[in-house]
Amino acid sequence: MKQQTQTIGLIGGMGWESSKLYYERINTRVNEVLGGSHSAKILMVSVDFAEIEQLTISNNWNAIGDIIAKSAKQLEKAGAGIVLLCTNLIHIASEAIVQNTKIKFLHIANATGEAIQRRNLKKILLLGTKYTMEKDFYTKILTENYGLEIITPNEHHRNTIHTIIYTELLKGVFTEASKQIIKKIIENEQVNGVEGVILGCTELPILIKESDLSIPTFDTGAIHADKAVDEVIN
């Protein structure tokens, strides 16, 4: 008989809009697998995003690493058996979690790479903050571990997406105008043979749905949450 073998630890608040979706998705998936009145065993530490945002703007990734390492240690002390960072970008500092805790850390890019590989796709568009699109902490995992060809939009479009994320999505604002802008960016890249798109900011799937596009989308938060459930149910 299947059962939950570990408690899932979540580091949230980056932003809280997507963090609540992790909680909902994990509980829903656990109930689907175990049935009855089962829900997930979850612990969450939620940070103040204003502090993270300022450190991001100043490129102080070490200080961000200190914050998320402290959060991970809180989860470990409280009894979590696995930890998830409920954001794409802040995985840039995720090594701080690995170095400062002994519990399993589930990287969002690995979960996403596995999901794309199962679809037998190769040429993938990555959308997210400019840091996620321009630095290699994310793309390196996808290319080296999963053999994917990762494409990002041009600089103007990267800046446009980044601005929408920081000035709207992370503040809980989701407009039709921004949806159409990002949809157009994706459609432009399809001309270059892109087979799917990674929504590499956990707020992006709130704005853009797969039904809005003609190619597969990869909702990184949902993929990450589902992978966590797979890890803790045996």
TrEMBL record:
Species name: Aquimarina mytili
GO molecular function: amino-acid racemase activity
InterPro entries in UniProt: Asp/Glu/hydantoin_racemase, Asp/Glu_race, Asp/Glu_racemase_AS_2, Asp_race
Record-linked SUPFAM superfamilies: Aspartate/glutamate racemase
EC number of the protein: 5.1.1.-
Protein name, as recorded: Amino acid racemase
Sorted UniProt keywords: Isomerase
Pfam family membership, one: Asp_Glu_race
Enzyme class name: isomerase
Transmembrane segments: none
Gene3D superfamilies xref list: 3.40.50.1860
Protein family: Belongs to the aspartate/glutamate racemases family.
